[in-house]
Prior knowledge:
Blueprint: H1 3-15, H2 18-25, H3 29-43, E1 48-51, E2 54-57, H4 59-84, E3 91-97, H5 99-116, E4 120-126, H6 129-137, E5 143-146, E6 156-170, E7 182-183, H7 185-190, E8 192-195, H8 201-212, E9 218-222, H9 226-234, E10 240-243, H10 248-252, E11 257-262, E12 268-275, H11 283-301, E13 308-310, H12 313-316, E14 321-324, E15 332-333
Parallel strand pairs: 3-4, 3-5, 7-11, 8-9
Antiparallel strand pairs: 1-2, 5-12, 6-10, 6-11, 6-12, 6-13, 6-14, 14-15
Amino acid sequence: MDLRQLRYFAQIVESGSLSKASRILFVAQPALSQQISKLESEVGRQLLVRSPAGVAPTEHGLALYHQARFMLRQMEQAMSIARRGSGAVQGMVSVGLPATTVAALGLPLVRSVRERYPGILLNVVEAMSGHLTQMMRVGSLDLAILFSNDVMHDAFIEPLLEEELFVFLAENGTLFPPDRTTMTIAEAAALPMILPTGEHGLRRRISAEFEHRNLTPRIVAEIDSLSLVMNCVHAGIAATIQPMAAVSPEGMRGRRFRTLSISDARMTRLSHLYSLPPSRLSAAASAVAMELRRTVRELVVSGLWEGVKPMRDSDVAAPAQPALRTPGKKRTRQIRDVATASARVR
């Protein structure tokens, strides 16, 4: 078994077909098939199931794929460090951020890492939380911010911040009385609303609040692109429910929105920082995790990131607790409490 075989195998699994992997790798399909046959012979197990619809990994193949992706990423990091030389903290670090989080945290984090750790190659992946979860599971990310604390049993998890959700409307729109600064959740449900699709973590959080109160929101469009959602809201087509971070880039563009809090419901979401276990976390990834926490804290304290409650400062420096797996019992996880002291956005 060699790294070339693992790279071929991982690409086939990700592509779902030999022909597509062949085009991506620039390797003839018969040669790929031969390499996979050799790999299966060495392992002594069938790794792929072939069908007219393509290929899919077997249980043994999926286990090998997860380890292969980790080994390939480690090799990429080692090569990056070798090319850059020794000395300061160096290496490639992949961070997964949801779109609304990128809007507030993306630029400050990139700037901070660039200034403090010029030897680190930062790879920021913006995607829906479900996709980021899958990338964390297969080892494609070192760090990720996710909205649930129970999507991985072998990751280190710590609550990062709590975000209040607001109703956003066009500044001069006519969908809601202009003299109002708050609205009830029933009034929000009655508005034409644009929300993310059902697979999005934010959508599940919003839907749960409406369902709890036996309300059916008037959804006129489902859009996973944050920029398109805000374009539609700015045009007066509909309202949306988002954290305050959603309008961070809008302010830079000179666009303004009406921001209304919900008066009779506490609609928030909790963001968690996921990281690989210490045995798999590089020094560069640890440094980026530290910068991420510090940047979040500075953005909140300075007022540049509104509508959030951060962790206590004393908790930030403490290591996150891993999931605990006990045979015959439910999995438990030690999660630190989120601080309650923070000013509410008016």
